[in-house]
Amino acid sequence: MGPKKRDPLATSFKCPFCDHESSVTVAIDRKTYIGTLDCRNCGQHYTSSSDMRSLMQAVDVYYEWIDACEIVNEPRTTTSGATTDRPSATLPRQSVPVASRAGPAPGEKFTEDDRGFIDDADDMDAEAEYEDE
């Protein structure tokens, strides 16, 4: 009778972004030992960064991707000690005062045509005219 044969490892997987079953396929280039993963449904793409050489299988690339997604989505602790669900960027953000964000884009000149383009000052009570009776 002999030893029991092992079940083959999966080659198509569920996408955590679009939640579509069997839409993620993995290709491994055996010459460069780079695994790439693509979702046929939503277009997500991932390139493996592991160094598993000949032992690498499709399931390894998929779970490396899942681990990378979890790392990006884990809550971060801010410098004040508060926890935030927002993932941190790879580059540090520059602190920009709110007042400096208003106005023209960098390199743009403010012209007379721009003055009064958006004028909300007189519309403060505009909805009062349409009160329910």
From TrEMBL:
Regions of compositional bias (Basic and acidic residues) in chain numbering: 109-118
Pfam families tied to this protein: Zn_ribbon_Elf1
Assigned GO CC terms: nucleus
Compositionally biased tracts (Acidic residues): 119-133
InterPro entries hit by this protein: Elf1, T_Elf1_sf
Compartments where located: Nucleus
GO molecular function annotation: RNA polymerase II complex binding; zinc ion binding
Region annotation (Disordered) ranges: 74-133
SUPFAM superfamilies membership: Zinc beta-ribbon
Keywords assigned: Metal-binding, Nucleus, Transcription, Transcription regulation, Zinc, Zinc-finger
Biased composition (Polar residues): 75-93
Primary localization: nucleus
GO biological process: transcription elongation by RNA polymerase II
Chain's role: Transcription elongation factor implicated in the maintenance of proper chromatin structure in actively transcribed regions.
Homology family: Belongs to the ELOF1 family.
Record protein name field: Transcription elongation factor 1 homolog
Organism: Friedmanniomyces endolithicus
